[in-house]
């Protein structure tokens, strides 16, 4: 075989080393898919729940009330003895219990716990149904419009976040460990004794990420599409560009964090320190809009936030690449500065 | 012609002076050995010559060039290096590792040729992690030879290898020299130095305590024989050093070691000297003087901790 450019050989060697490490392959390709599946199932949107309603009373009037409510298919109405009703109410099997007095002159009683939101809803649904059946008229004309759009479910929000998280994790852990291991084994020193360009060595790590990118992003997106029907509204190519930039950014950060560490333990600590804030703040699992207004500009400057926002803009809203330029700029600055710093600080022995 | 030299070379670490001002000259085409015990400063010296460690003082020139802070590529193209404790990537195959190293050099030998040279042809598709110690060492040599270097630096190329594996490495070094290459190697093994090296520098505590060809160093002992004595009472070395036929004596491991140039004179004199002091002789052995004895006589210690 003819001789190839050292950058090509270094990248190839890096990729082969990665692919021959079954554990690494698991964490990068399989684990994120399992995570997506687990979270997708846990937070799947359910069809509206039938509201469990109990009706208690000793006379025929109780049966009458059941008859009135039965027509409403959002309500699951059962007639039962008063004290069974109390028990079920207490255990949460019933949302509301309607007590029907023997004396027709006395009022109906709704028994429910106002601290339980579903019980308050149930009380209003029951009351609304009874009053209408008895002839109450609406005074304002209204119309309901139901939205259950694909693209606005939790799983739609989650999948781009997992892509971002995976790009961060595999970029930083993958490169950080490989670099420090090569340093511990004096391989870096051996390379330093050759005319190999040092920038080529670091660049090969970033390029190796490019080789894995398609598989890494594809695995999560593919699982989201196949299992939950999550789709990318914007351009796939745009998404690829954002992923690529994100991968480069975190490769740069990974190299920077690993630039000087002499032990695996040391680099692990730094990796955790850098990644933990982004795990929490960058909105991979839930929107960072929940954090105080004052800190949000800072959160938006984190590379993972920028990556997640750009991925979501394209995947969920169908934004174009140009619309995401502020996020891309944040990523480019992090990546570029990290790479240059890593090259300067890098310890070869 | 000089392939590499250094003058007044110094390297200090926090708690130790690893190299305490040494002068060396490696001639073109020769095999030069640095012999010394653990911690003598061999690795530190070699790595300074290789441009991997920055000296705290002194001058270095390798193949007519000096090391700069950056831009050493041109010089590195001409060197072959094997470090004391490099672990090559375990997941890559022999072939992949050699190709990788070859790609760093503008002018390199064909991968197949180098692999055949170190006799790893059958293992070319085996992962580095699955190689034996001797095979790994030969792979490290292949990586050093792939650039077709003018000078080869080998740091303890045979430490930890069995005699057969050691012999293979020696043959590789010899064939490199036969093609006109220059070698600088470090070793603990005096038989290695004696077989491979034209000249040897004996190092101890960061200094060179003897320099010359193996024959010269041994001759400087003025000893045809080395006599080792095990005694039932401790005896100071000077008591026997001035006997007729004896050129020197050092204490070693509780016994004494004499360098003897006339065994016919020395033996009776020594026996009567012992009898006069009432010291009993437990054991007496003699052998031809070697580099090992040179080291013992210079330092009173063995080269290796046995
Ligand atoms: N990076 C370092 N930091 C601190 N001390 C060091 C360092 N490298 C070497 N030393 C010290 O310098 C001295 C010389 O070490 P060196 O590795 O050169 O010895 P050596 O002759 O190669 O020994 P060996 O035969 O065990 O390989 C030793 O005392 C060692 O502890
Ligand atoms: Mg050493």
Describe this structure in words.
The complex is a heterodimer of chains A (349) and B (306). Chain A has a four-stranded mixed beta sheet, sandwiched between helices. In chain A, helix 6 packs antiparallel against helix 8 and helix 12 (303-315) runs antiparallel to helix 13 (325-345). The radius of gyration of chain A is 29 Å and the shape is elongated. The longest helix of chain A is centred in the middle third of the chain and has 31 residues, at 154-184. Chain A folds into two domains: 6-43 and 150-345, no CATH class; 51-133, Periplasmic binding protein-like II (D-Maltodextrin-Binding Protein, domain 2), CATH 3.40.190. Helix content of chain A is 63%, strand content 5%. Chain A has 349 residues and is mainly α. Chain B is built from eleven helices and 13 strands. In chain B, helix 3 (94-103) packs across helix 4, helix 3 (94-103) runs parallel beside helix 5 (133-145) and helix 5 (133-145) runs parallel beside helix 6 (163-178). The longest helix of chain B is centred in the middle third of the chain and has 16 residues, at 163-178. In chain B, helix 6 (163-178) links the parallel strand 6 (151-155) and strand 7. Helix content of chain B is 32%, strand content 29%. Chains A and B meet through helix 1 and helix 7 of A and helix 2 and helix 3 of B.
